[in-house]
Amino acid sequence: MKNQELAKKLVSPSKNSRLEKFGKTITLLSLCLIVFIVFMILIFVISKGISTVTVNKVNVFSFLFGQKWNPSAKAYGALPMILGSFIVTILSALIATPFAIGAAVFMTEVSPKGAKILQPAIELLVGIPSVVYGFIGLQVIVPFVRSIFGGTGFGILSGIFVLFVMILPTVTFMTTDALRAVPRHYREASYAMGATRWQTIWRVVLNAAKSGIFTAVVFGMARAFGEALAIQMVVGNSAVLPTSLTTPASTLTSILTMGIGNTVMGTVDNNVLWSLAMVLLLMSLAFNSAIKFITREGKRNYER
């Protein structure tokens, strides 16, 4: 009898194995829930977005490449907003990248002690709400642009300055992580060959971390591309093709936030806004795909 009981205890799952199985089940259910939610969001937005073409019979080429946006006159050209979003996103990323790399190099390579002062200041920028950035842009940046370049002050240039400050912490922190991930023996080998500190940073460290830096820049661009409230307050919200950086313009997010609450669900005016949301979603997916591609290439380079 004792041998049989001992055999049953040995065969039956222990408490730790049951807990491990329970943990795996919870993890799997959580993963399935997340995938399901993401999949349903995609299906919902895409189904609403294509209604413009399938139900309201709006020509897809006239929608994507049309230059006039006037829903009251049945003109649904989204090109001004698409161009506005790309211009603001790309230029803000171009301006933020050198500052982010400089701050990251300073905190990791030049003065790690200085990071105790610089890092909390950058973290503070992360915690500021978007509406506060918008108010600052409205009260400071717009008058500054108006005094320097003339006009109303509202436009792409004001939006670039606002987004530059908003994406700077994201790009800086991700660049800092990429620099810290570079193995220490890379630096030691460079110094052993007689390279100076700047040569080591420029030729070795930044070169080894370039995939992580590119990922940080693309991530910052994705953040800028999807920003709505702050950019809406300073860009001018004029749905026309941007002719200069200082004239009022619009982005996909600014038109969406202004118009979605003033339309009736199921109407063509509402459906075209969902089409703009679908374009925004597809671009966000493109940014995420670019991040994954750059990350995969970076891992391959490390392996080599």
UniProtKB/TrEMBL annotation:
Segments crossing the lipid bilayer: 25-46, 81-108, 120-142, 154-179, 200-222, 272-294
Membrane topology per record: Multi-pass membrane protein
The ABC transmembrane type-1 domain, residue ranges: 82-291
Keywords: Cell membrane, Membrane, Phosphate transport, Transmembrane, Transmembrane helix, Transport
Localization per record: Cell membrane
Record PROSITE patterns: ABC_TM1
UniProt keyword ATP-binding present: no
Main location: membrane
CDD domains reported for this sequence: TM_PBP2
UniProt xrefs under InterPro entries: MetI-like (IPR000515), MetI-like_sf (IPR035906), Phosphate_PstC (IPR011864), Phosphate_Transport_Permease (IPR051124)
Physiological role: Part of the binding-protein-dependent transport system for phosphate; probably responsible for the translocation of the substrate across the membrane.
Record family assignment: Belongs to the binding-protein-dependent transport system permease family. CysTW subfamily.
Protein name per its UniProtKB record: Phosphate transport system permease protein
The species this protein was found in: Streptococcus oricebi
